[in-house]
């Protein structure tokens, strides 16, 4: 769809005229031409035609004596294209010739330029530059500089001063508030820095002049502050200069070399020690009534030649410097280098290599070599054929500098519309720093540095830090003479128009500022968002442009060939646009003008964009253009908030630089601060609004982008209810809920927020999902935010769902939960009985929030039981435990979280232990197993000590407990961690001698100690609490001692306490490598005890059994050795016989 | 470009205390201060004037006359259009030093044709009654050294100050008119010979 809109651009000016224009514009747009699409090539042709037409009309009006107001100022041709198309083309052509790039650009007819003033300059301006709140005008061909305040109404003259030669180039440095010029006088070229220029109010004060490095306490120190000129001698002719906005350093491009001068601000003490002269004269002069106190604030600057870079193969046109980045621009080449001071001595590096390696093509210089297009980023830039070398200067103890290549770009001269091959030259080289909010005021290094340069037909913006990349390529509709980059906008001038484009610097800075951008928490339009033009404002005969803050300064000069034309146009313009001024007639008489065009604040521009976007949202809310415009608006706000955060620092630094000004400044500053405060709030509010609108945009977006709705809505600060209201479809439309909206809602409900929706909203959410995405409805209803849902209403929805989509376990559980909410227990039970427990457990794994809330926020968040959990604890504890074990085993709940749930349910003594036992059975994680073994051992010990061991004494001391889900036998039979009880334990503690609970606890603990997994070491400290007085207590200690291999002492103890168990013990434990203990320990022990006890049948039986074993295991000779000397032979003989016989047989 | 004003650099040289700063102040601000400081290094003032229909900005360079400031002032001799050699009529030594000042200027200003360079000689402080240098003596010196115009001035009572500066302008304009008729063969020389002045920053 290509539409063309021709509309008269509104005159920029105050009040009514602009509004009238806007109204006219609106009326055109209402006619259905809100989007204007056109190819730019076509546009330029068209606009040329328009201009012809315009001139014809003018001619006619002149002849016919028409009033000039009826004339058209010109035509604005707007060009947009569907975004997808452009992206494709961009991909394909990004590395090829700039001309073959897509010649499409969005144009919105916004009003970034608010008002205009004409600077009352008497002589025709030759050069113009600005900085430090001032506009510097060098009179045409002249040696006089006039400084005007751009920040005051009417741009009053601050001061004027003469230069020492004819100024060829002039720059202002923010840091140090100095001006640097390249001047010519009597055919020689000079480089000079002008400091303290603000003290030249009348132009009649003496001006000090000195050479670089020759600091002297001249008039500026002894008397009032004096303007001073520093002459900077150079061995080569300076071609271009640049000041670093970060450090105030000065970069001078000579014909084949670059010289870097670092700014020095010596204090008074240094100055005195540096002064080569004795103090006599000065002290006498001070005694003459001069005070030195007033000189404390005098800004004394000097420069130090710090490094020289040789680039023998490049002839510069322009240079730029910013925070260590050095950019040089030749006719069709741009090279960016990084200059870093390093303390290590410089090793001969590749720079010298490149210097020596000769280009093989160089000798064939008689051939016409057409260099090819090149774009080399980062390290690759060193492959460009431009050698660079460093020459050391300065003092020897100063650090060395190292150079690295950052970017190289080479273009080929090409013809393009309205611009000859010769005219195809690069211009407007700029390095631009941007600071982020998180940077402290003292930080010198900017977070981002951008490099901009421009051909007549296209401009290029690169981001240099954190990986060099082409950020945007600007396609101009016609030949651009100059361009200036700012935080928010790119201003370009053609011969007859000032245009402005959007920039992506803020998008880059925002990402450096905040690492959470591009997550589900925060969003920001991408750096690759295509740029657009906001405005084309007609002027006649534009020559140059520069920018200070929000002030765009334009110099126009009509061609001398058509004096009539220019005169008429200036008259017309002045009548329409300018503030009335008494000198208007004189201004109209000459063919030139110096304008200060103010741009509106980003907030104002933002509001206009929002207003503009309303047209789109009404006509076509899904249009890409709406989203693009809102994204542009978002970036404006981002840039603005970056600006604001630096503004405080800026005022301070500015004050530092312009010391000696009025005292009222501090007052003004506090005023500014309160202003900034309210500005900041306004900005935050605008940002929230914009995020809400972007959220709306993305909530209706396609699959690809819809997820963006979530972060934008989040940043908007809107509540879910508000978002739901914004997304409510009109009752008349068939329009359903957007994917982005559903995405947002799902995410919100998935998150464990404490915010619960009202019943009304919750019910609406159910409706939204039952209509748009029924598959999600269960997890939606399981959200803690949905607790206020109306159960009866929801049940109806579910019943309908079941009828259409069939029965599912999670659905059944959800319905059962609703029944529970309705207190309908029979229905609840009926529903829960529909599926076997195993399937219900799977249901919980599918949707853990059916069982517990709060688990989604990570392992350490607090979980809490819900009504279903409580009910299950009563009616189906087995299911609850199984469910919790399943959640734990599937990493949906942590052990601590499960503990918490059971504690909340008030069953830490029963169900929790059941859960541990069950988890011990299920788990395969060693750490979990050890933890549970320990916990269970503690619990069992606790139970043993707190229950009465007497089987007949009635109730235990603790409150009655539910019977554990698993008995000791169950555990022994089903869990590998519970071992079978050793036979001697049964002898030691026969069953039914204690209470059931006590018995169970004892058996479980014994079983754990008999099992393979329990680490005895860990349980020992726990056992220390138990006395050995009782047999069961003794049994546990003995178990431990045995497990630790202390058989000797165990045998003794067992013989002491319970000899009837000794044979069972020995049979079980004295096997294999412990076999020898039978005769080495047990036999002598038994012999001794029988001897002492006499007729102890138990001991005798044990002795007999032992002898049987010993006789089987030893040789007759060994056996004979073992027989006690005092024994009765007849008693031992049968055994000896068995032994011999067995031996013989073997 | 028709209204272009030419910038003329006129430099005041002479012994310390002969009244160079006072002459400049008298001419530009029409004020006189008997207790001016010694000039340190180099300073300048501008004054616009019209001479014989030419719009001219006169840039008057005041220098420190004392010997110890030599290294500070000499780098700025270059590019001068006219040199005002100044002495004080009540100080014979300052008159005797005129030749040295001329030599220093010609050397550091790198003047191509010293014999054609416009010098103007100023005998200041004629208001003082005890003269040490007579008018005739001064005029003779001017005659012998290159036929330079000689003016007796007083910064204190403004005698001849404007006339002297205007004469300087006329001299320069006359020079320019002569050179305008020549074919401009002497184009910009980028590689000047190394000079002691350039190395003073080391």
TrEMBL record, chain A:
GO cellular component: cytoplasm
InterPro entries tied to this protein: HPS3, HPS3_C, HPS3_N
Top-level taxonomic group: Eukaryota
Skewed-composition ranges (Low complexity): 272-295, 661-676
Domain BLOC-2 complex member HPS3 C-terminal: from-to ranges: 605-1143
Span list, region Disordered: 270-295, 648-682
Ranges of residues in domain BLOC-2 complex member HPS3 N-terminal: 106-267, 292-585
Pfam families per UniProt: HPS3_C, HPS3_N
Record protein name field: Hermansky-Pudlak syndrome 3 protein
From TrEMBL, chain B:
Main location, first listed in the record: membrane
Catalytic reaction equation(s): GTP + H2O = GDP + phosphate + H(+)
GO annotation terms (biological process): protein transport; Rab protein signal transduction; retrograde transport, endosome to Golgi
SMART domains tied to this protein: RAB, RAN, RAS, RHO
Cellular component aspect of the GO annotation: cytosol; late endosome; lysosome; phagocytic vesicle membrane; plasma membrane
GO MF term list: G protein activity; GTP binding
UniProt keyword Electron transport present: no
Topology with respect to the bilayer: Lipid-anchor
Pfam families membership: Ras
Sorted UniProt keywords: Cell membrane, Cytoplasmic vesicle, GTP-binding, Hydrolase, Lipoprotein, Membrane, Nucleotide-binding, Phosphoprotein, Prenylation, Protein transport, Transport
Keyword Phosphoprotein: yes
NCBIfam families: small_GTP (TIGR00231)
Protein name in the entry: small monomeric GTPase
The species this protein was found in: Pleuronectes platessa (European plaice)
